[in-house]
Automatic annotation (TrEMBL):
EC number(s) on file: 2.1.1.-
Protein name: Class I SAM-dependent methyltransferase
InterPro entries tied to this protein: MnmM_MeTrfase, SAM-dependent_MTases_sf
CDD domains: AdoMet_MTases
Single GO MF descriptor: methyltransferase activity
GO annotation, biological process: methylation
Top EC class of this enzyme: transferase
Lineage: Bacteria, Bacillati, Bacillota, Bacilli, Bacillales
Record flagged with keyword Protein biosynthesis: no
Assigned keywords, A-Z: Methyltransferase, Transferase
Protein backbone atom coordinates (compact mmCIF):
# COMPACT_ATOMS: atom_id res chain seq x y z
CA UNK A 1 0.00 0.00 0.00
CA UNK A 2 1.43 3.43 -0.93
CA UNK A 3 2.10 5.98 1.79
CA UNK A 4 -1.02 7.92 0.74
CA UNK A 5 -3.29 4.90 0.30
CA UNK A 6 -3.78 4.28 4.04
CA UNK A 7 -4.98 7.85 4.70
CA UNK A 8 -7.22 7.73 1.61
CA UNK A 9 -8.72 4.44 2.73
CA UNK A 10 -9.44 5.81 6.21
CA UNK A 11 -11.04 8.89 4.67
CA UNK A 12 -13.28 6.98 2.34
CA UNK A 13 -14.54 4.88 5.22
CA UNK A 14 -15.10 8.10 7.15
CA UNK A 15 -17.47 9.76 4.72
CA UNK A 16 -20.49 9.14 6.95
CA UNK A 17 -18.68 10.69 9.93
CA UNK A 18 -17.91 13.75 7.84
CA UNK A 19 -21.58 14.20 7.01
CA UNK A 20 -22.27 14.28 10.76
CA UNK A 21 -19.92 17.24 11.12
CA UNK A 22 -16.31 18.34 11.07
CA UNK A 23 -15.55 17.60 14.74
CA UNK A 24 -17.05 14.15 14.47
CA UNK A 25 -14.85 13.49 11.43
CA UNK A 26 -11.78 14.76 13.31
CA UNK A 27 -12.53 12.23 16.07
CA UNK A 28 -13.02 9.49 13.50
CA UNK A 29 -9.57 10.13 12.01
CA UNK A 30 -7.93 10.13 15.44
CA UNK A 31 -9.75 6.94 16.35
CA UNK A 32 -8.20 5.31 13.27
CA UNK A 33 -4.72 6.50 14.21
CA UNK A 34 -4.23 6.60 17.99
CA UNK A 35 -3.79 3.31 19.85
CA UNK A 36 -3.98 2.16 23.45
CA UNK A 37 -0.89 3.02 25.47
CA UNK A 38 0.20 5.93 23.27
CA UNK A 39 0.70 9.67 23.88
CA UNK A 40 -1.82 12.17 22.50
CA UNK A 41 -2.04 15.95 22.76
CA UNK A 42 -5.07 18.18 23.18
CA UNK A 43 -3.60 21.56 22.26
CA UNK A 44 -6.74 23.54 23.26
CA UNK A 45 -8.64 21.68 25.98
CA UNK A 46 -11.45 24.22 26.59
CA UNK A 47 -14.31 22.30 28.20
CA UNK A 48 -12.46 19.01 27.96
CA UNK A 49 -14.52 17.25 25.30
CA UNK A 50 -11.55 16.41 23.09
CA UNK A 51 -9.37 15.62 26.11
CA UNK A 52 -11.90 13.06 27.30
CA UNK A 53 -12.14 11.58 23.81
CA UNK A 54 -8.34 11.19 23.62
CA UNK A 55 -8.23 9.70 27.14
CA UNK A 56 -10.56 6.95 26.04
CA UNK A 57 -8.47 6.28 22.92
CA UNK A 58 -5.14 5.89 24.72
CA UNK A 59 -6.67 4.05 27.69
CA UNK A 60 -5.20 3.76 31.17
CA UNK A 61 -1.82 2.67 29.81
CA UNK A 62 -1.55 5.78 27.66
CA UNK A 63 -1.24 9.49 28.38
CA UNK A 64 -2.85 12.72 27.22
CA UNK A 65 -1.22 16.11 27.65
CA UNK A 66 -3.83 18.87 27.46
CA UNK A 67 -3.10 22.59 27.17
CA UNK A 68 -5.10 25.75 27.64
CA UNK A 69 -4.08 29.29 28.51
CA UNK A 70 -7.22 29.90 30.60
CA UNK A 71 -7.71 28.87 34.21
CA UNK A 72 -11.44 28.44 33.51
CA UNK A 73 -10.72 25.91 30.76
CA UNK A 74 -8.35 23.91 32.97
CA UNK A 75 -10.99 23.93 35.73
CA UNK A 76 -13.75 22.81 33.32
CA UNK A 77 -11.60 20.04 31.87
CA UNK A 78 -10.50 18.81 35.31
CA UNK A 79 -14.15 18.61 36.37
CA UNK A 80 -15.16 16.78 33.20
CA UNK A 81 -12.39 14.21 33.62
CA UNK A 82 -13.22 13.69 37.32
CA UNK A 83 -16.86 13.01 36.43
CA UNK A 84 -15.66 10.32 34.02
CA UNK A 85 -13.04 9.02 36.49
CA UNK A 86 -10.17 9.58 34.05
CA UNK A 87 -6.73 10.30 35.46
CA UNK A 88 -4.39 9.57 32.55
CA UNK A 89 -4.08 13.28 31.71
CA UNK A 90 -1.51 15.95 32.42
CA UNK A 91 -3.40 19.26 32.40
CA UNK A 92 -1.25 22.29 31.70
CA UNK A 93 -2.17 25.94 31.94
CA UNK A 94 0.27 27.22 29.36
CA UNK A 95 0.33 28.05 25.67
CA UNK A 96 0.67 25.11 23.31
CA UNK A 97 3.74 26.84 21.83
CA UNK A 98 5.64 25.50 24.85
CA UNK A 99 4.63 21.90 24.13
CA UNK A 100 8.22 20.63 23.99
CA UNK A 101 8.73 21.56 27.67
CA UNK A 102 6.29 18.81 28.62
CA UNK A 103 7.47 15.94 26.40
CA UNK A 104 9.83 13.46 28.04
CA UNK A 105 13.01 12.38 26.24
CA UNK A 106 12.27 9.52 23.85
CA UNK A 107 8.50 10.07 23.83
CA UNK A 108 6.62 10.17 20.53
CA UNK A 109 3.15 11.58 19.89
CA UNK A 110 0.63 9.52 17.96
CA UNK A 111 -2.15 12.10 17.60
CA UNK A 112 -3.01 15.70 18.40
CA UNK A 113 -6.03 17.94 18.10
CA UNK A 114 -6.37 21.72 17.85
CA UNK A 115 -9.85 23.13 18.22
CA UNK A 116 -9.34 26.76 17.25
CA UNK A 117 -11.23 29.83 18.39
CA UNK A 118 -12.54 30.83 21.83
CA UNK A 119 -13.89 29.00 24.87
CA UNK A 120 -17.66 28.66 24.39
CA UNK A 121 -19.72 30.79 26.83
CA UNK A 122 -16.60 32.63 27.93
CA UNK A 123 -14.40 35.60 27.05
CA UNK A 124 -14.50 35.78 23.24
CA UNK A 125 -11.39 37.95 23.14
CA UNK A 126 -9.17 35.06 24.30
CA UNK A 127 -8.65 33.21 21.03
CA UNK A 128 -6.07 31.02 19.39
CA UNK A 129 -3.80 32.98 17.04
CA UNK A 130 -2.31 31.97 13.70
CA UNK A 131 1.35 32.42 14.51
CA UNK A 132 1.29 30.48 17.80
CA UNK A 133 -0.97 27.80 16.35
CA UNK A 134 1.47 27.19 13.48
CA UNK A 135 4.49 27.21 15.82
CA UNK A 136 2.84 24.62 18.07
CA UNK A 137 1.95 22.44 15.07
CA UNK A 138 5.56 22.57 13.85
CA UNK A 139 6.85 21.60 17.31
CA UNK A 140 4.40 18.70 17.61
CA UNK A 141 5.49 17.49 14.16
CA UNK A 142 9.01 17.05 15.56
CA UNK A 143 7.66 14.44 18.01
CA UNK A 144 4.95 12.89 15.81
CA UNK A 145 5.47 9.20 15.03
CA UNK A 146 5.40 8.06 11.40
CA UNK A 147 1.75 7.71 10.38
CA UNK A 148 0.76 9.97 13.30
CA UNK A 149 -1.90 12.61 12.81
CA UNK A 150 -2.58 16.23 13.78
CA UNK A 151 -6.15 17.42 13.23
CA UNK A 152 -7.08 21.08 13.32
CA UNK A 153 -10.70 22.14 13.55
CA UNK A 154 -10.71 25.67 12.15
CA UNK A 155 -13.48 27.89 13.53
CA UNK A 156 -13.12 31.27 11.85
CA UNK A 157 -16.42 33.16 12.10
CA UNK A 158 -15.36 35.24 15.14
CA UNK A 159 -13.25 38.45 15.20
CA UNK A 160 -9.65 37.38 14.55
CA UNK A 161 -10.75 34.07 13.03
CA UNK A 162 -10.14 35.04 9.41
CA UNK A 163 -6.59 36.18 10.16
CA UNK A 164 -5.83 32.92 11.94
CA UNK A 165 -7.39 30.84 9.16
CA UNK A 166 -5.33 32.62 6.49
CA UNK A 167 -2.07 32.23 8.42
CA UNK A 168 -2.71 28.55 9.13
CA UNK A 169 -3.56 27.73 5.50
CA UNK A 170 -0.65 29.76 4.14
CA UNK A 171 1.93 28.19 6.45
CA UNK A 172 0.66 24.60 6.33
CA UNK A 173 0.52 24.74 2.52
CA UNK A 174 4.30 25.20 2.61
CA UNK A 175 5.03 22.03 4.62
CA UNK A 176 7.30 19.67 2.71
CA UNK A 177 5.27 17.13 0.71
CA UNK A 178 7.94 14.46 1.27
CA UNK A 179 7.52 14.71 5.03
CA UNK A 180 3.78 15.21 5.56
CA UNK A 181 0.43 14.98 3.80
CA UNK A 182 -1.81 17.97 4.51
CA UNK A 183 -5.48 17.77 3.60
CA UNK A 184 -8.45 20.09 4.02
CA UNK A 185 -12.09 19.02 4.35
CA UNK A 186 -14.98 21.36 4.34
CA UNK A 187 -18.60 21.80 3.43
CA UNK A 188 -18.96 24.12 0.43
CA UNK A 189 -22.70 24.78 0.71
CA UNK A 190 -22.99 25.85 4.37
CA UNK A 191 -23.54 29.48 5.31
CA UNK A 192 -22.02 31.62 8.10
CA UNK A 193 -18.37 30.55 8.00
CA UNK A 194 -18.73 26.85 8.85
CA UNK A 195 -15.71 25.28 10.55
CA UNK A 196 -13.48 23.06 8.44
CA UNK A 197 -10.86 20.46 9.14
CA UNK A 198 -7.17 20.26 8.30
CA UNK A 199 -5.46 16.90 8.80
CA UNK A 200 -1.68 16.50 8.77
CA UNK A 201 -0.22 13.02 8.58
CA UNK A 202 3.49 12.33 8.97
CA UNK A 203 4.62 10.21 6.05
CA UNK A 204 6.42 6.94 6.47
CA UNK A 205 10.04 7.10 5.34
C1 LIG B 1 -12.69 26.25 20.80
S1 LIG B 1 -11.97 26.23 22.39
C2 LIG B 1 -11.54 24.54 22.60
C3 LIG B 1 -12.69 23.60 22.85
C4 LIG B 1 -12.26 22.28 23.44
N1 LIG B 1 -11.44 21.50 22.56
C5 LIG B 1 -13.42 21.45 23.97
O1 LIG B 1 -13.47 20.25 23.69
O2 LIG B 1 -14.23 21.99 24.70
C6 LIG B 1 -10.39 26.99 22.13
C7 LIG B 1 -9.54 27.06 23.39
O3 LIG B 1 -8.22 27.44 23.02
C8 LIG B 1 -7.66 28.11 24.11
N2 LIG B 1 -6.42 28.79 23.70
C9 LIG B 1 -6.29 30.01 23.12
N3 LIG B 1 -4.97 30.26 22.86
C10 LIG B 1 -4.28 29.16 23.29
C11 LIG B 1 -2.90 28.82 23.32
N4 LIG B 1 -1.96 29.65 22.79
N5 LIG B 1 -2.52 27.64 23.87
C12 LIG B 1 -3.46 26.79 24.37
N6 LIG B 1 -4.79 27.07 24.38
C13 LIG B 1 -5.19 28.24 23.83
C14 LIG B 1 -8.79 29.01 24.59
O4 LIG B 1 -8.59 29.43 25.91
C15 LIG B 1 -10.02 28.08 24.41
O5 LIG B 1 -10.35 27.44 25.61
Amino acid sequence: MSKYAKLNEIMERGVMQMLKGVLSYAHYLLNETVNTGELAIDATCGNGNDTLFLCKLVGEQGKVIAFDVQEQAIHNTKKRLAEEKRDNVILIQDSHVNVENYIQPGETISGAIFNLGYLPKSDKSIITKGESTVTAIQKILNYLKEGGLIVIVVYHGHPGGTEEKNTVIEELSELEQRDVSVLRYDFINQKNNPPFLIAIQKNKR
